[in-house]
Amino acid sequence: MNSSKPSSLAPEILKDKPRLPWLIVSNDMFYDSDAIEPRHFNAWRRKNAFRTPVHILTILSISVWLMITLGYFGYISFFIPLSLRIVSYIAVGTLTSLQVVCTGYTMLVDPQDPAVTRARQPRNIDYVKIAGGYDHHCEYLNTCIGSRNYFPFCWTLILAGTISCFYTAVACWGFSWYFTCRDDFDATVAFMFNLSLDARSQQTAVCWGIFMYACLCAVVSFSVFNLLCFHFKLWILGLTTSRYLDARDALKYGSETNLYDQRPIPEISLIKKLKEVFTRSSCEHDRYNTSMNIV
């Protein structure tokens, strides 16, 4: 993948550098297709998530985030009593601001290894050699996750999961009003949308709209916390996402899939890894006690 003569090939490559699309649905088109020659694509480098092309999942994730955030502050929050509503605005607003900061840093920072940047070589398709401490390429944030932005990436997941879980709880609370205290529900909906208290059909439609909002927030919360648990598992295993996926494919297909990585296939079972850690700790403890008895 690496060019043996990057300095001599770079001007020619840069001269013929392709015009990439603004929006893509898959990154695979750059690696294994005739659409763009990899030699030319190597001359291009995304410094941050806001450089084109933008993955469609990035647009989707930002749109969903805006939808549930504006939905809460604009409508769902009115089911909270006024005194607590102000507190919720401050708390949720603070958490949302922190999430924006973490997400923005994750997307804006250049994950490329400084040594590669100083070498001024064309981009290499092998992300592991480009992004410092490469973990994976996040299509939802349109950037590579490495050592420079992994910590804020994890905090982005924690904050997003916590906030969306809170949105789900409040929406479910408001939805339950339709069945438990209909008069309060009708009054709240009439205030939110400037409706008449007798507009039963519109209030019923709003009720099911709140239900759909709660389902959307629940899906977001579950997905984010599931991803967070996955990265916690990787932390225990001591593996990066890319290394874990390579090992999983190797075990599934019976051979090492990454020809450029000749390391032994690591353990990817969390239970076996924990047993191994506890067994090693127990052996070390017994060895220490034996040495102390000898002394």
From TrEMBL:
Places the protein is found: Membrane
Main enzyme class: transferase
Biological processes per GO annotation: protein targeting to membrane
Segments forming domain Palmitoyltransferase DHHC: 133-245
Lineage top rank: taxon: Eukaryota
Gene Ontology CC, one term: Golgi apparatus
Domain notes: The DHHC domain is required for palmitoyltransferase activity.
The protein's name in its UniProt record: Palmitoyltransferase
